[in-house]
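Supplementary Methods. Inverse-folding protocol.

Structures were first reduced to a C-alpha coordinate string of length 505. This string, shown here, constituted the complete conditioning input.
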Protein backbone atom coordinates (compact mmCIF):
# COMPACT_ATOMS: atom_id res chain seq x y z
CA UNK A 1 0.00 0.00 0.00
CA UNK A 2 1.40 3.40 -1.02
CA UNK A 3 1.72 6.17 1.50
CA UNK A 4 0.42 9.61 0.66
CA UNK A 5 2.58 12.65 1.49
CA UNK A 6 0.81 15.33 3.43
CA UNK A 7 1.14 17.86 0.58
CA UNK A 8 -0.23 15.56 -2.14
CA UNK A 9 -3.73 16.25 -3.47
CA UNK A 10 -6.10 13.28 -3.53
CA UNK A 11 -7.78 14.29 -6.83
CA UNK A 12 -7.05 16.26 -10.02
CA UNK A 13 -9.24 18.15 -12.43
CA UNK A 14 -10.21 16.47 -15.70
CA UNK A 15 -10.76 18.31 -18.87
CA UNK A 16 -14.43 18.71 -18.04
CA UNK A 17 -13.55 20.12 -14.63
CA UNK A 18 -14.79 17.05 -12.67
CA UNK A 19 -12.35 15.48 -10.23
CA UNK A 20 -10.85 12.12 -11.18
CA UNK A 21 -9.71 9.63 -8.57
CA UNK A 22 -6.10 8.61 -8.88
CA UNK A 23 -5.51 4.83 -9.29
CA UNK A 24 -3.18 4.76 -6.28
CA UNK A 25 -5.82 6.45 -4.13
CA UNK A 26 -8.47 3.99 -5.33
CA UNK A 27 -6.27 1.04 -4.36
CA UNK A 28 -5.62 2.62 -0.93
CA UNK A 29 -9.32 3.17 -0.28
CA UNK A 30 -10.18 -0.36 -1.40
CA UNK A 31 -7.58 -1.97 0.85
CA UNK A 32 -8.64 0.24 3.77
CA UNK A 33 -12.32 -0.66 3.41
CA UNK A 34 -11.52 -4.37 3.16
CA UNK A 35 -9.30 -4.13 6.24
CA UNK A 36 -12.01 -2.40 8.24
CA UNK A 37 -14.53 -5.01 7.17
CA UNK A 38 -12.22 -7.79 8.35
CA UNK A 39 -11.78 -6.08 11.74
CA UNK A 40 -15.53 -5.63 12.18
CA UNK A 41 -16.16 -9.22 11.10
CA UNK A 42 -13.58 -10.51 13.60
CA UNK A 43 -15.09 -8.44 16.43
CA UNK A 44 -18.57 -9.74 15.62
CA UNK A 45 -17.26 -13.30 15.62
CA UNK A 46 -15.78 -12.81 19.08
CA UNK A 47 -18.92 -11.16 20.49
CA UNK A 48 -21.15 -13.36 22.65
CA UNK A 49 -24.30 -13.41 20.59
CA UNK A 50 -27.19 -15.78 21.08
CA UNK A 51 -27.11 -18.84 18.80
CA UNK A 52 -29.98 -19.51 16.43
CA UNK A 53 -30.83 -22.49 18.62
CA UNK A 54 -29.72 -23.98 21.94
CA UNK A 55 -30.76 -27.45 20.80
CA UNK A 56 -27.28 -28.85 20.15
CA UNK A 57 -26.00 -27.58 23.49
CA UNK A 58 -29.04 -28.92 25.35
CA UNK A 59 -28.73 -32.33 23.70
CA UNK A 60 -25.09 -32.53 24.77
CA UNK A 61 -25.69 -31.43 28.39
CA UNK A 62 -29.00 -33.07 29.37
CA UNK A 63 -27.45 -36.50 30.13
CA UNK A 64 -25.17 -34.90 32.74
CA UNK A 65 -28.06 -33.39 34.76
CA UNK A 66 -29.96 -35.53 37.26
CA UNK A 67 -33.14 -35.31 39.29
CA UNK A 68 -32.85 -35.90 43.02
CA UNK A 69 -35.63 -37.37 45.11
CA UNK A 70 -35.38 -37.53 48.89
CA UNK A 71 -37.56 -39.18 51.51
CA UNK A 72 -37.76 -38.34 55.19
CA UNK A 73 -39.74 -40.13 57.89
CA UNK A 74 -41.65 -37.54 59.92
CA UNK A 75 -43.25 -38.23 63.27
CA UNK A 76 -46.88 -37.13 63.60
CA UNK A 77 -48.20 -35.16 66.54
CA UNK A 78 -49.43 -37.21 69.53
CA UNK A 79 -52.84 -35.62 69.43
CA UNK A 80 -54.65 -32.41 70.26
CA UNK A 81 -53.78 -30.42 73.35
CA UNK A 82 -56.48 -29.81 75.96
CA UNK A 83 -58.28 -26.51 75.31
CA UNK A 84 -58.23 -23.75 77.87
CA UNK A 85 -61.49 -23.61 79.87
CA UNK A 86 -62.40 -21.32 82.77
CA UNK A 87 -61.63 -22.86 86.22
CA UNK A 88 -64.76 -24.25 87.80
CA UNK A 89 -66.50 -24.58 84.44
CA UNK A 90 -68.74 -27.68 84.04
CA UNK A 91 -66.63 -28.60 81.01
CA UNK A 92 -63.37 -28.66 82.99
CA UNK A 93 -63.80 -32.16 84.44
CA UNK A 94 -65.19 -33.48 81.15
CA UNK A 95 -62.22 -32.33 79.07
CA UNK A 96 -59.74 -33.32 81.76
CA UNK A 97 -61.03 -36.88 81.92
CA UNK A 98 -61.17 -37.18 78.12
CA UNK A 99 -57.65 -35.90 77.47
CA UNK A 100 -56.06 -37.82 80.33
CA UNK A 101 -57.50 -41.01 78.89
CA UNK A 102 -56.35 -40.01 75.40
CA UNK A 103 -52.79 -39.30 76.54
CA UNK A 104 -52.45 -42.81 77.96
CA UNK A 105 -52.46 -44.13 74.38
CA UNK A 106 -50.80 -41.41 72.30
CA UNK A 107 -51.17 -41.74 68.57
CA UNK A 108 -47.87 -41.08 66.92
CA UNK A 109 -48.26 -41.75 63.25
CA UNK A 110 -45.31 -41.76 60.92
CA UNK A 111 -45.50 -40.28 57.45
CA UNK A 112 -43.01 -40.16 54.62
CA UNK A 113 -42.27 -36.67 53.32
CA UNK A 114 -40.66 -36.39 49.89
CA UNK A 115 -38.90 -33.50 48.21
CA UNK A 116 -37.32 -32.95 44.82
CA UNK A 117 -34.23 -31.19 43.57
CA UNK A 118 -31.57 -31.23 40.88
CA UNK A 119 -27.90 -32.07 40.51
CA UNK A 120 -25.19 -32.71 37.96
CA UNK A 121 -22.50 -35.33 37.38
CA UNK A 122 -18.89 -34.19 37.83
CA UNK A 123 -17.23 -37.58 37.51
CA UNK A 124 -18.20 -40.47 35.25
CA UNK A 125 -17.66 -42.85 38.20
CA UNK A 126 -20.81 -41.49 39.85
CA UNK A 127 -20.10 -38.31 41.81
CA UNK A 128 -22.98 -35.83 41.79
CA UNK A 129 -23.12 -32.20 43.00
CA UNK A 130 -26.29 -30.70 44.48
CA UNK A 131 -27.39 -28.25 47.18
CA UNK A 132 -27.09 -29.20 50.82
CA UNK A 133 -30.67 -28.10 51.49
CA UNK A 134 -31.90 -30.57 48.87
CA UNK A 135 -30.63 -33.60 50.82
CA UNK A 136 -30.51 -32.27 54.38
CA UNK A 137 -32.18 -34.55 56.97
CA UNK A 138 -33.10 -37.06 54.25
CA UNK A 139 -33.41 -40.72 55.25
CA UNK A 140 -33.26 -41.91 51.65
CA UNK A 141 -31.77 -40.24 48.55
CA UNK A 142 -32.34 -41.36 44.97
CA UNK A 143 -30.74 -39.97 41.83
CA UNK A 144 -32.72 -40.25 38.61
CA UNK A 145 -30.67 -40.10 35.41
CA UNK A 146 -31.79 -38.59 32.13
CA UNK A 147 -32.80 -42.03 30.85
CA UNK A 148 -35.01 -42.54 33.97
CA UNK A 149 -32.56 -44.93 35.62
CA UNK A 150 -33.01 -44.65 39.40
CA UNK A 151 -29.94 -45.08 41.60
CA UNK A 152 -29.65 -45.01 45.37
CA UNK A 153 -27.19 -42.34 46.55
CA UNK A 154 -25.00 -41.87 49.60
CA UNK A 155 -23.65 -38.58 50.95
CA UNK A 156 -19.91 -38.10 50.46
CA UNK A 157 -19.81 -34.73 52.19
CA UNK A 158 -21.79 -31.54 52.61
CA UNK A 159 -21.16 -27.94 53.58
CA UNK A 160 -24.13 -25.98 54.98
CA UNK A 161 -22.25 -22.67 54.85
CA UNK A 162 -22.06 -22.71 51.06
CA UNK A 163 -25.09 -25.02 50.59
CA UNK A 164 -23.12 -27.61 48.61
CA UNK A 165 -23.29 -31.40 48.90
CA UNK A 166 -21.62 -34.31 47.07
CA UNK A 167 -23.44 -37.60 46.43
CA UNK A 168 -22.13 -40.95 45.18
CA UNK A 169 -24.05 -43.43 43.05
CA UNK A 170 -22.98 -46.81 41.67
CA UNK A 171 -23.88 -46.83 37.96
CA UNK A 172 -23.72 -49.91 35.78
CA UNK A 173 -21.80 -48.02 33.11
CA UNK A 174 -19.96 -44.76 32.70
CA UNK A 175 -21.93 -41.58 33.16
CA UNK A 176 -21.75 -38.30 31.23
CA UNK A 177 -19.84 -35.76 33.32
CA UNK A 178 -19.39 -32.01 32.89
CA UNK A 179 -16.55 -29.69 33.85
CA UNK A 180 -16.41 -26.29 35.52
CA UNK A 181 -15.73 -23.06 33.69
CA UNK A 182 -14.31 -19.77 34.92
CA UNK A 183 -17.24 -17.92 36.46
CA UNK A 184 -15.09 -14.80 36.94
CA UNK A 185 -15.09 -14.37 33.16
CA UNK A 186 -18.89 -14.20 33.04
CA UNK A 187 -20.00 -10.62 32.47
CA UNK A 188 -23.32 -9.03 33.16
CA UNK A 189 -25.36 -9.64 30.02
CA UNK A 190 -23.68 -12.93 29.01
CA UNK A 191 -25.94 -15.78 27.96
CA UNK A 192 -26.36 -18.90 30.07
CA UNK A 193 -28.33 -22.16 29.97
CA UNK A 194 -29.93 -23.64 33.10
CA UNK A 195 -31.07 -27.26 33.38
CA UNK A 196 -33.00 -28.73 36.28
CA UNK A 197 -36.05 -30.48 37.67
CA UNK A 198 -38.64 -27.72 38.28
CA UNK A 199 -41.68 -28.92 40.23
CA UNK A 200 -40.62 -32.52 39.55
CA UNK A 201 -41.27 -32.34 35.80
CA UNK A 202 -37.83 -33.75 34.96
CA UNK A 203 -35.02 -32.41 32.79
CA UNK A 204 -36.02 -28.89 31.77
CA UNK A 205 -33.89 -26.41 29.83
CA UNK A 206 -34.19 -22.64 30.27
CA UNK A 207 -32.02 -19.76 29.10
CA UNK A 208 -31.24 -16.28 30.30
CA UNK A 209 -28.42 -13.90 31.03
CA UNK A 210 -26.22 -12.94 33.95
CA UNK A 211 -28.25 -10.13 35.53
CA UNK A 212 -25.81 -9.19 38.31
CA UNK A 213 -22.75 -10.41 40.16
CA UNK A 214 -21.65 -10.50 43.79
CA UNK A 215 -25.13 -10.62 45.30
CA UNK A 216 -25.41 -10.98 49.09
CA UNK A 217 -28.80 -12.47 50.01
CA UNK A 218 -27.93 -13.22 53.66
CA UNK A 219 -27.91 -16.96 53.00
CA UNK A 220 -24.54 -17.51 54.67
CA UNK A 221 -21.18 -15.97 55.55
CA UNK A 222 -19.73 -16.49 52.06
CA UNK A 223 -22.52 -15.07 49.89
CA UNK A 224 -21.28 -14.08 46.43
CA UNK A 225 -24.13 -15.12 44.14
CA UNK A 226 -24.62 -14.73 40.42
CA UNK A 227 -28.07 -13.37 39.62
CA UNK A 228 -29.92 -14.49 36.51
CA UNK A 229 -33.24 -13.96 34.78
CA UNK A 230 -33.32 -17.55 33.48
CA UNK A 231 -36.57 -19.16 34.74
CA UNK A 232 -35.61 -20.93 37.99
CA UNK A 233 -38.34 -22.63 40.01
CA UNK A 234 -38.70 -24.95 42.99
CA UNK A 235 -36.93 -28.18 42.15
CA UNK A 236 -34.17 -26.41 40.21
CA UNK A 237 -32.07 -26.18 43.39
CA UNK A 238 -28.71 -27.86 42.86
CA UNK A 239 -28.98 -27.76 39.09
CA UNK A 240 -26.18 -26.41 36.89
CA UNK A 241 -25.94 -23.21 34.90
CA UNK A 242 -23.79 -23.45 31.78
CA UNK A 243 -22.00 -20.96 29.58
CA UNK A 244 -22.29 -21.32 25.81
CA UNK A 245 -19.24 -23.61 25.80
CA UNK A 246 -21.11 -26.13 27.96
CA UNK A 247 -19.08 -25.46 31.13
CA UNK A 248 -20.70 -25.16 34.55
CA UNK A 249 -20.40 -21.56 35.73
CA UNK A 250 -22.94 -21.70 38.56
CA UNK A 251 -25.17 -23.87 40.77
CA UNK A 252 -28.79 -22.75 41.08
CA UNK A 253 -29.57 -22.41 44.77
CA UNK A 254 -32.24 -19.78 45.49
CA UNK A 255 -34.95 -17.63 43.96
CA UNK A 256 -36.70 -14.46 44.98
CA UNK A 257 -40.40 -15.01 44.55
CA UNK A 258 -43.45 -13.71 46.38
CA UNK A 259 -45.53 -16.37 44.61
CA UNK A 260 -43.21 -19.37 44.80
CA UNK A 261 -42.71 -19.40 41.02
CA UNK A 262 -40.11 -17.72 38.83
CA UNK A 263 -40.28 -13.95 38.61
CA UNK A 264 -36.95 -13.60 36.82
CA UNK A 265 -34.71 -13.30 39.89
CA UNK A 266 -32.67 -16.43 40.54
CA UNK A 267 -29.34 -16.89 42.30
CA UNK A 268 -26.47 -19.30 41.67
CA UNK A 269 -23.26 -20.17 43.51
CA UNK A 270 -20.38 -19.18 41.18
CA UNK A 271 -18.26 -22.07 39.94
CA UNK A 272 -15.09 -20.43 41.24
CA UNK A 273 -16.59 -20.39 44.75
CA UNK A 274 -18.01 -23.91 44.52
CA UNK A 275 -14.99 -25.70 43.06
CA UNK A 276 -12.67 -25.39 46.11
CA UNK A 277 -15.48 -26.57 48.38
CA UNK A 278 -16.25 -29.54 46.14
CA UNK A 279 -12.58 -30.47 45.98
CA UNK A 280 -12.29 -30.54 49.78
CA UNK A 281 -15.52 -32.50 50.18
CA UNK A 282 -14.18 -35.14 47.80
CA UNK A 283 -10.80 -35.30 49.57
CA UNK A 284 -11.83 -34.96 53.22
CA UNK A 285 -15.62 -35.31 53.39
CA UNK A 286 -15.66 -31.85 54.99
CA UNK A 287 -14.42 -28.33 54.34
CA UNK A 288 -11.36 -27.06 56.18
CA UNK A 289 -11.33 -23.28 56.04
CA UNK A 290 -8.57 -20.85 56.79
CA UNK A 291 -8.85 -18.71 59.93
CA UNK A 292 -7.38 -15.28 60.59
CA UNK A 293 -8.74 -14.72 64.09
CA UNK A 294 -10.35 -11.28 63.79
CA UNK A 295 -13.82 -9.81 64.10
CA UNK A 296 -14.40 -7.30 61.34
CA UNK A 297 -16.88 -4.67 60.28
CA UNK A 298 -17.59 -2.45 57.28
CA UNK A 299 -15.51 0.64 56.63
CA UNK A 300 -18.07 3.40 56.15
CA UNK A 301 -17.32 6.80 54.67
CA UNK A 302 -17.32 8.28 58.17
CA UNK A 303 -14.88 5.65 59.46
CA UNK A 304 -12.64 6.21 56.43
CA UNK A 305 -12.68 9.95 57.20
CA UNK A 306 -11.64 9.44 60.81
CA UNK A 307 -8.83 7.04 59.88
CA UNK A 308 -7.43 9.13 57.03
CA UNK A 309 -8.40 6.71 54.26
CA UNK A 310 -9.12 8.34 50.91
CA UNK A 311 -12.03 5.97 50.26
CA UNK A 312 -14.03 3.41 52.29
CA UNK A 313 -12.22 0.18 51.40
CA UNK A 314 -10.99 -2.83 53.34
CA UNK A 315 -12.21 -4.54 56.49
CA UNK A 316 -12.00 -2.79 59.85
CA UNK A 317 -10.69 -5.03 62.65
CA UNK A 318 -13.10 -4.58 65.56
CA UNK A 319 -11.23 -7.05 67.77
CA UNK A 320 -8.64 -9.82 67.56
CA UNK A 321 -9.03 -13.30 69.03
CA UNK A 322 -6.60 -14.04 71.82
CA UNK A 323 -3.72 -16.27 70.64
CA UNK A 324 -5.17 -16.27 67.11
CA UNK A 325 -3.08 -15.93 63.94
CA UNK A 326 -3.74 -12.18 63.61
CA UNK A 327 -2.78 -11.37 67.21
CA UNK A 328 0.39 -13.44 66.96
CA UNK A 329 1.36 -11.55 63.80
CA UNK A 330 0.79 -8.14 65.44
CA UNK A 331 -2.53 -7.06 63.90
CA UNK A 332 -4.57 -4.88 66.28
CA UNK A 333 -8.11 -3.66 66.74
CA UNK A 334 -8.56 -0.51 64.67
CA UNK A 335 -6.42 -1.75 61.80
CA UNK A 336 -8.04 -1.81 58.36
CA UNK A 337 -7.08 -4.86 56.30
CA UNK A 338 -6.67 -3.55 52.76
CA UNK A 339 -4.76 -6.43 51.15
CA UNK A 340 -4.61 -10.15 51.93
CA UNK A 341 -2.29 -12.61 50.19
CA UNK A 342 -1.87 -10.27 47.25
CA UNK A 343 -5.61 -9.70 46.83
CA UNK A 344 -7.10 -6.24 47.31
CA UNK A 345 -9.86 -6.26 49.93
CA UNK A 346 -12.32 -3.94 48.23
CA UNK A 347 -15.00 -4.39 50.89
CA UNK A 348 -15.44 -6.12 54.23
CA UNK A 349 -17.55 -9.09 53.11
CA UNK A 350 -14.89 -10.24 50.61
CA UNK A 351 -12.29 -10.92 53.31
CA UNK A 352 -13.97 -14.00 54.92
CA UNK A 353 -14.17 -15.73 51.53
CA UNK A 354 -10.54 -14.96 50.70
CA UNK A 355 -9.32 -16.18 54.10
CA UNK A 356 -11.52 -19.30 54.01
CA UNK A 357 -10.03 -20.34 50.65
CA UNK A 358 -6.45 -19.92 51.90
CA UNK A 359 -4.53 -23.13 52.57
CA UNK A 360 -4.15 -23.82 56.26
CA UNK A 361 -0.60 -23.33 57.55
CA UNK A 362 0.43 -20.93 54.79
CA UNK A 363 2.28 -17.76 55.80
CA UNK A 364 0.55 -15.04 53.80
CA UNK A 365 1.31 -11.31 53.49
CA UNK A 366 -1.30 -8.98 54.96
CA UNK A 367 -1.33 -5.19 54.58
CA UNK A 368 -3.25 -3.01 57.01
CA UNK A 369 -3.93 0.70 57.27
CA UNK A 370 -2.82 2.00 60.67
CA UNK A 371 -2.46 5.61 61.81
CA UNK A 372 -2.42 7.14 58.30
CA UNK A 373 -0.03 4.61 56.78
CA UNK A 374 0.28 1.03 55.54
CA UNK A 375 1.91 -1.68 57.65
CA UNK A 376 2.81 -5.15 56.36
CA UNK A 377 2.59 -8.43 58.28
CA UNK A 378 3.12 -12.14 57.71
CA UNK A 379 0.29 -14.26 59.13
CA UNK A 380 0.32 -18.05 59.59
CA UNK A 381 -3.22 -19.08 58.68
CA UNK A 382 -5.01 -21.34 61.18
CA UNK A 383 -7.99 -23.65 60.78
CA UNK A 384 -11.49 -22.34 61.38
CA UNK A 385 -13.31 -24.13 64.17
CA UNK A 386 -17.05 -23.86 64.76
CA UNK A 387 -17.55 -21.27 67.51
CA UNK A 388 -19.48 -22.16 70.62
CA UNK A 389 -22.55 -20.10 71.37
CA UNK A 390 -21.93 -17.38 73.90
CA UNK A 391 -24.78 -16.03 76.01
CA UNK A 392 -24.33 -12.79 77.91
CA UNK A 393 -26.68 -11.96 80.76
CA UNK A 394 -26.90 -8.90 82.93
CA UNK A 395 -28.13 -9.17 86.48
CA UNK A 396 -29.48 -6.21 88.43
CA UNK A 397 -27.42 -4.96 91.33
CA UNK A 398 -27.23 -2.00 93.61
CA UNK A 399 -26.62 1.38 91.98
CA UNK A 400 -23.13 2.81 91.78
CA UNK A 401 -22.26 5.80 93.90
CA UNK A 402 -19.52 6.87 91.48
CA UNK A 403 -19.61 10.22 89.68
CA UNK A 404 -20.73 10.50 86.06
CA UNK A 405 -20.17 13.00 83.24
CA UNK A 406 -22.61 14.10 80.54
CA UNK A 407 -21.05 14.79 77.13
CA UNK A 408 -23.60 16.74 75.13
CA UNK A 409 -21.63 16.43 71.86
CA UNK A 410 -22.12 12.66 72.04
CA UNK A 411 -25.51 12.66 73.72
CA UNK A 412 -24.18 10.37 76.43
CA UNK A 413 -23.68 10.19 80.15
CA UNK A 414 -20.68 8.05 81.09
CA UNK A 415 -19.00 6.95 84.32
CA UNK A 416 -15.78 5.34 85.34
CA UNK A 417 -16.08 1.60 85.96
CA UNK A 418 -16.06 0.76 89.66
CA UNK A 419 -16.90 -2.49 91.42
CA UNK A 420 -20.58 -1.63 91.80
CA UNK A 421 -20.99 -0.80 88.10
CA UNK A 422 -19.00 -3.90 87.16
CA UNK A 423 -21.45 -6.00 89.19
CA UNK A 424 -24.53 -4.08 88.06
CA UNK A 425 -23.76 -4.55 84.36
CA UNK A 426 -22.10 -7.97 84.73
CA UNK A 427 -18.77 -6.75 83.33
CA UNK A 428 -15.74 -8.99 83.36
CA UNK A 429 -12.65 -8.02 85.29
CA UNK A 430 -10.76 -7.47 82.03
CA UNK A 431 -13.20 -4.85 80.70
CA UNK A 432 -11.67 -1.39 80.65
CA UNK A 433 -13.00 2.00 79.57
CA UNK A 434 -15.95 4.17 80.59
CA UNK A 435 -19.49 2.82 80.86
CA UNK A 436 -22.55 4.45 79.32
CA UNK A 437 -25.13 5.05 82.05
CA UNK A 438 -27.61 7.15 80.06
CA UNK A 439 -28.27 7.89 76.39
CA UNK A 440 -30.09 10.92 75.03
CA UNK A 441 -32.64 9.35 72.64
CA UNK A 442 -32.41 12.43 70.40
CA UNK A 443 -28.59 12.47 70.40
CA UNK A 444 -26.12 11.26 67.76
CA UNK A 445 -24.96 8.22 69.78
CA UNK A 446 -28.49 6.84 70.11
CA UNK A 447 -28.83 7.01 66.33
CA UNK A 448 -25.76 4.76 66.03
CA UNK A 449 -27.11 2.11 68.41
CA UNK A 450 -25.09 2.96 71.52
CA UNK A 451 -27.10 2.17 74.63
CA UNK A 452 -27.07 2.03 78.39
CA UNK A 453 -24.47 -0.50 79.59
CA UNK A 454 -22.13 -0.24 76.61
CA UNK A 455 -18.48 0.41 77.41
CA UNK A 456 -16.45 2.94 75.41
CA UNK A 457 -12.94 1.50 75.22
CA UNK A 458 -11.27 3.91 72.79
CA UNK A 459 -11.89 7.20 71.03
CA UNK A 460 -10.02 7.84 67.77
CA UNK A 461 -7.81 4.82 68.57
CA UNK A 462 -6.72 6.22 71.96
CA UNK A 463 -7.68 4.35 75.14
CA UNK A 464 -9.99 6.05 77.64
CA UNK A 465 -10.34 5.06 81.29
CA UNK A 466 -11.99 8.14 82.77
CA UNK A 467 -15.01 10.22 81.65
CA UNK A 468 -12.80 13.35 81.63
CA UNK A 469 -10.48 11.73 79.06
CA UNK A 470 -13.41 11.05 76.76
CA UNK A 471 -14.68 14.62 77.11
CA UNK A 472 -11.19 16.04 76.39
CA UNK A 473 -10.80 13.95 73.22
CA UNK A 474 -14.19 15.08 71.94
CA UNK A 475 -13.29 18.71 72.57
CA UNK A 476 -9.94 18.26 70.83
CA UNK A 477 -11.70 16.82 67.78
CA UNK A 478 -14.10 19.77 67.69
CA UNK A 479 -11.28 22.34 67.97
CA UNK A 480 -9.36 20.55 65.19
CA UNK A 481 -12.38 20.86 62.90
CA UNK A 482 -13.12 17.14 62.82
CA UNK A 483 -16.85 16.59 62.80
CA UNK A 484 -16.65 12.85 63.48
CA UNK A 485 -15.07 10.75 66.23
CA UNK A 486 -14.44 7.01 66.11
CA UNK A 487 -15.46 5.06 69.21
CA UNK A 488 -14.52 1.47 70.03
CA UNK A 489 -17.51 0.13 71.94
CA UNK A 490 -17.90 -3.09 73.91
CA UNK A 491 -21.53 -4.28 74.01
CA UNK A 492 -23.57 -7.45 74.14
CA UNK A 493 -22.51 -8.26 70.58
CA UNK A 494 -18.80 -7.81 71.36
CA UNK A 495 -16.43 -5.08 70.25
CA UNK A 496 -17.42 -2.80 67.40
CA UNK A 497 -16.34 0.56 65.99
CA UNK A 498 -18.93 3.33 65.86
CA UNK A 499 -18.59 6.75 64.23
CA UNK A 500 -20.46 9.57 65.95
CA UNK A 501 -20.86 12.97 64.31
CA UNK A 502 -20.23 15.48 67.08
CA UNK A 503 -21.42 18.49 65.11
CA UNK A 504 -24.90 17.04 65.56
CA UNK A 505 -24.52 16.93 69.34
Amino acid sequence: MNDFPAHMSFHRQTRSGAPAVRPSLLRWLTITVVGLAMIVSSAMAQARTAPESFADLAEKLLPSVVNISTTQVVQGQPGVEMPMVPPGSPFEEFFKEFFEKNQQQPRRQQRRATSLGSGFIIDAKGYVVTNNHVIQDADEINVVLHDDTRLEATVVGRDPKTDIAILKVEPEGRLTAVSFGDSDKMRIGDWLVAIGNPFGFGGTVTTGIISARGRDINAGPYDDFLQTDAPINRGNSGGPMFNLEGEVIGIATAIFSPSGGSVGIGFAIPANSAEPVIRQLLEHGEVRRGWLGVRIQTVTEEIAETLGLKEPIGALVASVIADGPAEKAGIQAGDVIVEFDGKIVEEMRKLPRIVADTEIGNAVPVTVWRKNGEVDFKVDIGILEEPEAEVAARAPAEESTGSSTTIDDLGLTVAGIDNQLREQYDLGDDIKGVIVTDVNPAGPSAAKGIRDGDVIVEISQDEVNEPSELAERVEEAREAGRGVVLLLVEGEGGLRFVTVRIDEG
